[in-house]
Amino acid sequence: AGAMRRGHLTGLRPLLRVAMRQDLPNIMPWVVLISALSASSVLAYSWVFPDPAERNELSLTVSANPALSLIFGPARDLMTAEGFNSWRAGMLGAFFAGLMAILIVVRNSRADEDSGQAELLASGVMSRPTRLAVAVFMAALAAVLLGVMSTIVTVVVGGNPGDTTMLAATFTSSALMWAAVAAVAAQIGSDSRSASTLAIGVMGTLFVARGYVDAGDAPEWAVWLTPFGWLEQVQPATENDPNPLLLSLAFTLAMLALAFALQSRRDFGMGLIPPRRGPAHGGWVARPFGLAIRLNRGSIIAWTLAFAVLGVVFGVLATSVGEVIASNPNIARALAAGAVSQADLTFAFLATLLSLVGIIAGVYGVQVMMRVPAEESSERMDQLLAGSLARSRYLAGFAVIAFVGPAIAMMLGGLIIGAVAAASNAGISTVDVFVQSLATIPAVWTLTALCLAVVGAVPRVRIIGWLGLVAAFALTILGPLFNLWDWILSVSPFWHVPNVTSVEPDWTGLMWISAISAVLITVGFVGFRRRDLM
Predict the structure, then answer these.
(1) Which pTM does this prediction carry?
(2) pLDDT digits (tens, 9 = 90+) for 287-313
(3) Given CA atoms 467, 472, 477, 483 in this order, what sign does their dihedral have?
(4) Sign, Cα dihedral of 516, 518, 519, 523
(5) Do residues 133 and 12 touch, judged by C-beta distance below 8 A?
(6) CA angle at residue 444 from 438 to 450, to 5 degrees?
(7) CA 215 to chain centre
(8) How far apart, in whole angstroms, are the C-alpha atoms of residue 352 and residue 97?
(9) Which of 41, 184, 337, 522 is 20 to 30 A from 93 via CA?
(10) 283 and 289 in contact (C-beta within 8 Å)?
């Protein structure tokens, strides 16, 4: 708190003004994306679900699929546009707002130390806490801007002002909380990359924990164990209770106090977790593939552990989901009539979870491929390619990791999910779940191949790699709810993954997306060989 007093923040105003001007192009896409997520929910609701019968069918569909609660939280009221918006945009908007805040804080605090820019600024008239304070203030301004824009845009398209304001307040609160967590992570990580990984990892873990509580058979009080649970308890469009936001504010202030205390005690350019020294001799690291592994070693370890944890969590969730599904009156009648079995419904739920796991694996692959333009823009690639190293060999090192790493993670996750689910005698076979995870891998590779194509051929539009993941998530998870045409749903590679337990699985779709992946890989390698470096 003392570090935030005016006298201790010399140089705050000019640095904040310059930093906001420079970083605004990076901030606005997040604000627009999350605002559009809220506004589109209100717009789409009256178009897709115009009468009460269709809205009631939506409620039944959502209540019958616990996987949707895992992602979006509980659906408290799907008979109104505001209630639908609160369910569809609430947790996703809070997650994206937190991600935005983490990237802002790390980019404008720790990343400047890694690049040497912070040292140049520190040589002027500036106090030690100023740079971190600027990063936090930028995230706070972005959070407020997000809340205001989201409210205005959603109200303009027909949203209720009170309900919309309360939903937007959860976005702002999420951004503030995770900005504070990122400020702490920036003091702990050995560099900006590890700081971002730490903060995003904590946020992702707590998001999954919240999803487990919502989708499983956990006690009601468990929702208060995570910050996302606090935001969920605001219950926009139903209760509109602002009291949980006070808990979010207290958490933010506590994390900021810890962040400034840690910053005052750490060495400049170093984190509380010291970086490891490089090897004394090149060895295998001196080869293209070895270098790619060395650069991505932390990510490989972190992602592998994450998928093992996801396997356990989703496997345990599958053991209780059978009772949750059977408790639904409509499904219970179908079970009683013998139309389906509980094991079939549980496996369908697991197939949906594996699609979600596949999308997460796609993030893994895209992240590895995005390291290529990062190395290129930092000019470290130039020194390697100036010798006898061929461009194709350099790119191949990253590509192998981007394809093999997620595939191994998918198999590990599928094996653990299947083993845990089968151990509960839920009628699920470990082999079936593992084979389903294998069938999902070609869809993951398609997303990675898309990123490889744009990174290799036109890196200035590499954001397409991330947009591919967003589109796959929207079409795979939300597309069926909106009754979209098959030709639209087929844009997602996961739409082509068959249910391996069906009588005659159709493998044609996987053959097509595999062919598309091969074309995209070829485009990436040919483009990388022929284009100029950035």
Answers:
(1) 0.86
(2) 778 888 888 888 899 899 999 999 988
(3) positive
(4) positive
(5) yes
(6) 150
(7) 19
(8) 25
(9) 184
(10) no
